[in-house]
Specification:
Helix content: 25-40%
Number of helices: 17
Largest sheet: 6 strands, mixed
Shape: globular
Strand order of the largest sheet: 9-10-14-11-12-13
Number of strands: 14
Mean pLDDT: 86
Structural class: alpha/beta
Oligomer: single chain
């Protein structure tokens, strides 16, 4: 058996939970989640941070300003770890050191070290060495992340929770230097509950006695739960308001809602530095060190409020996949529509196939001087129609128009028509027949048609075909002006889109 990165990804994919098992979890409710911590405790223990997505990226960017560099003659750290999920294009993105994903070589090295160790443990107990000897996909990666950070001697690690908090496998960490809870919304109801109070209870599970905790302003019901649990756990919980200094800082993640995440990250990073007795400037956080400002400005988080440009098209990417994040994505896109577009644009992707829409899909707005505004959307596992309606509602209200898009295309998460998925993007936790039949996408087409009968709506079987269709619309109807396209609804969609855009199928 070879031991390459590709081999590691293939072996890792065998640990995914299939669609039938996922459905069983949903039907069983929260009870199946109770075993997460006991099972994970058998595998490992390791200290670090806990947070979410963009906030974790902000923290990592700030702390890496304290590693050796021309601008840091007196470094405090050598290596900062960052563990997040899910990934966009490559599974190794989940485990980062100094903001860079593990190389294929390092990922393969540490993957097989963990894999072999688990096999050895199973053999010592006279147990089989098949997948039953391994934790599931996410738990394996969590274990591997801890193993990697130990072997690489990282100085600090930011650990993002997977689902929830109380029973999340990352919550084996017993003495983090600080914990943070970002904005709460309704998600993963089959595991966390259907009310904001139930979800807040789970999220509060990451708080640890004697460890400072921070959150952002929450809905009153959620805030009450967090504060009660903080008292129960003997934790000092602070609520962080937006730092006014951010009005004068150009954040690397520029959407307005990122100021809340950045403000929380400032306090979490500072709490860790204070745990090391590192001095902060007087009047902090009203007076930020240059390292904090550089970190906030230099942060990068692909697929979140990101714009990619090619000749004639500005692709607006956001991996929002909950009602709350879709609302934020829509608000961000609305602000971009209001912004002036640079024209003409240089081509960044010189070679791509153009797929021209059929004549019977000509949009009534095609004779307007305004260039097309296009939606590329999918969501394969959540309530996709509700997300589509929320997107439409936010945009139509914000833009004061019943027609926020001239065109919309709904596709599956299949990356390429001919070659299928990149191995890193394979998912077996969805029903293959439903994907192949495009049942969900056809339902989305009907939903959107009911919302806006003037919109030209198309269904495509792959992301590659959807991208080609958008390019065809831009070429045929753009009239030399920049066409804006919002790509949203799913992390897997955005990841596959980036793979297509960067020519990953060649």
């Amino acid at each position: 058996m070879t031991r390459t990165y590709g081999d590691a990804v293939a072996a890792l994919n065998t640990l995914q939970t299939n669609a039938a098992a996922i459905d069983a979890v949903r039907k069983a409710g929260m009870s199946m989640n109770l075993q997460s911590i006991p099972e994970m405790t058998e595998w490992c223990r390791r200290a670090g941070y806990e947070g979410k997505g963009s906030t974790s990226a902000f923290i990592s960017s700030i702390l890496t300003q304290y590693i050796p560099s021309p601008s840091q003659p007196n470094p405090l750290f050598n290596k900062i770890g960052l563990y997040t999920s899910p990934h966009l294009r490559f599974v190794r993105e989940r485990i980062r050191i100094n903001n860079e994903p593990l190389s294929e070589e390092l990922f393969a090295k540490y993957f097989w070290e963990v894999w072999d160790k688990l096999d050895e443990s199973a053999r010592a107990k006279a147990e089989p060495t098949d997948k039953t000897a391994k934790p599931s996909y996410f738990r394996f990666l969590t274990l591997m992340a801890f193993h990697t950070y130990i072997r690489e001697n990282v100085d600090a690690a930011i650990i993002e929770c997977g689902v929830g908090g109380e029973y999340d496998c990352t919550n084996v960490i017993q003495q983090p230097s600080v914990t943070g809870i970002t904005n709460l919304g309704i998600d993963h109801v089959h595991l966390l509950g259907s009310t904001i109070e139930e979800i807040a209870w789970h999220k509060a599970g990451i708080m640890k006695e004697g460890t400072p905790a921070y959150t952002v302003p929450q809905l009153p019901a959620a805030q009450d739960v967090l504060e009660r649990r903080a008292v129960e756990k003997s934790v000092h919980l602070s609520t962080v308001q937006n730092n006014p200094l951010l009005q004068n800082i150009t954040l690397g993640l520029s959407a307005p809602f990122q100021r809340s995440n950045a403000s929380l990250a400032i306090m979490l990073a500072s709490a860790h530095l204070q745990s090391l007795s590192y001095p902060l400037p007087s009047l902090f956080p009203s007076n930020l060190p240059p390292e904090f400002i550089r970190g906030l400005e230099q942060v990068r988080w692909p697929g979140r409020c990101e714009i990619r440009r090619e000749k004639g098209i500005a692709w607006h990417l956001d991996s929002g996949h909950t009602l709350e994040s879709i609302h934020l994505a829509a608000s961000w896109f609305a602000s971009e529509i209001a912004a002036p577009s640079p024209s003409p644009l240089p081509s960044q992707n010189q070679h791509h196939p153009s797929s021209t829409p059929t004549d019977n899909n000509t949009n009534p707005k095609s004779n307007m001087q305004t260039p097309p505004c296009i939606l590329l959307f999918n969501q394969q596992t959540r309530d996709a129609p509700s997300l589509a309606r929320a997107l439409f509602s936010t945009l139509s209200t914000t833009l004061a128009t019943p027609h926020p898009f001239t065109h919309a295309v709904f596709c599956s998460n299949l990356t390429f028509k001919a070659s299928g998925y990149r191995p890193d993007l394979v998912s077996i936790n969805i029903d293959k027949k439903k994907v192949e039949g495009l049942e969900l996408q056809k339902g989305l087409r009907d939903t959107w048609g009911q919302l806006d009968a003037n919109c030209t709506v198309e269904v495509k079987g792959s992301i590659e075909e959807a991208v080609g269709w958008v390019r065809g619309v831009a070429e045929q109807e753009g009239r030399g002006k920049e066409v804006k396209c919002l790509v949203t609804g799913s992390v897997h969609l955005v990841g596959g889109f980036l793979e297509v855009l960067d020519g990953g199928g060649d």
